[in-house]
Specification:
328 residues, alpha/beta, 7-stranded mixed beta sheet, 12 helices, binds zinc ion
Length: 328
């Protein structure tokens, strides 16, 4: 009798504890950003002398999730659309992609993945493949000079089968870390997607850039600047686009999923966060860095690679700039 009662109470206690943890995981989290002193935004950079750079998000697929999955502490069950996109950059010195979206062959690559994977992260709606986007714009594979990969998670290299032969530029830190497991995970999914495309490494070994610890100036003219945004993966790399024909732009790779992650700041739901983040403390510090950067630079859109809302907003403003024929 005594044992039975003990087991019952034990069960109730564990159940309450489990419930408590589940509720806690939905609540906002404290970030050490309280010492932020309200300051005037920084002086915007004068971009008149930069080249004209065309930027287009090529949305290849999407998945709709409840907001608290993307934004821990969000008190709404409103659906949030997460995009799978590539970004096409037309620079006077090169035509290139930042990340690759999804290829027409993506299903054949995912068929041997676990059921859990296919029902969660791998459960997206294919909208328009990378190959189809390029064809629509009259771009041949051979017209692309290279691809810059923000990081080596499967969903950022999934368009590569559509652009076989195009050189891949990868942060050396990212590749070295991926060799320790990521490339081979899931029956070598990432390795198979990379295929035999040539790989060229870059290092963010240049000077600090607008508060970020180091940088790499891709063309040496200050227009395309790469900065490390580590934590999601070891070498997750952000990219600034500085141009004279439109607003400056800061692409974040997967340092955040949606803008609320750095505006509040807050992580994704911890269940997802812990599965997709390689270094928790570093990834949080990156969110804090982006939080401060966004406060100092309200004029620059900080766009994460899954943030469908900001990507659509950006493309709308690009179409407007093109329609009126000038940017002021
Ligand atoms: Zn991703």
């Amino acid at each position: 009798m005594k044992v039975k009662r003990l087991v019952t109470w034990g069960g109730i206690t564990l159940g309450a504890l489990g419930m408590g943890l589940a509720i806690k995981s939905l609540l906002p989290q404290r970030f050490l950003t309280d010492d932020w002193v309200e300051r005037k935004p920084s002086q915007p950079l004068d971009t008149a002398s930069f080249p004209e750079v065309e930027v287009s998000f090529l949305r290849c697929g999407s998945i709709t999730i409840p907001e608290p999955i993307a934004v821990r502490g969000a008190f709404t069950l409103a659906p949030r659309v997460m995009a799978h996109s590539a970004v096409l950059i037309g620079h006077p010195k090169a035509l290139f992609l930042y990340d690759t979206g999804l290829s027409s062959e993506i299903d054949t690559y995912l068929v041997d993945q676990s059921l859990f994977f296919r029902k969660t992260l791998g459960h997206f709606q294919l909208e328009q493949t990378l190959g189809s986007h390029l064809k629509e714009r009259g771009i041949e594979r051979s017209d692309l000079d290279f691809v810059l990969l923000s990081h080596l998670h499967w969903d950022h290299v999934s368009g590569i089968p559509d652009i076989r032969g195009v050189p891949l530029r990868i942060n050396r830190v990212e590749y070295e870390a991926a060799k320790l497991g990521l490339l081979d995970a899931g029956n070598g999914l990432v390795q198979r997607l990379l295929g035999d495309n040539p790989i060229e490494f870059f290092d963010c070994a240049g000077p600090t850039y607008e508060g970020f610890r180091s940088s790499f100036d891709v063309f040496g003219d200050g227009s395309i600047i790469l900065v490390p945004l580590p934590g999601h993966t070891a070498g997750n790399t952000g990219m600034f686009v500085n141009r004279s024909n439109g607003p400056r732009l800061f692409l974040l790779g997967d340092a955040a999923w949606v803008s609320q992650n750095y505006l509040r700041p807050t992580t994704m739901h911890p269940f997802i966060w812990s599965r997709v983040t390689s270094d928790d403390a570093t990834a949080r510090q990156t969110l804090i860095d982006l939080h401060y950067y966004a406060l100092r630079h309200p004029e620059i859109p900080l766009i994460a690679m899954h943030d469908a809302e900001l990507q659509e907003k950006f493309m709308k403003s690009e179409r407007h700039i093109q329609a009126v024929g000038r940017y002021t």
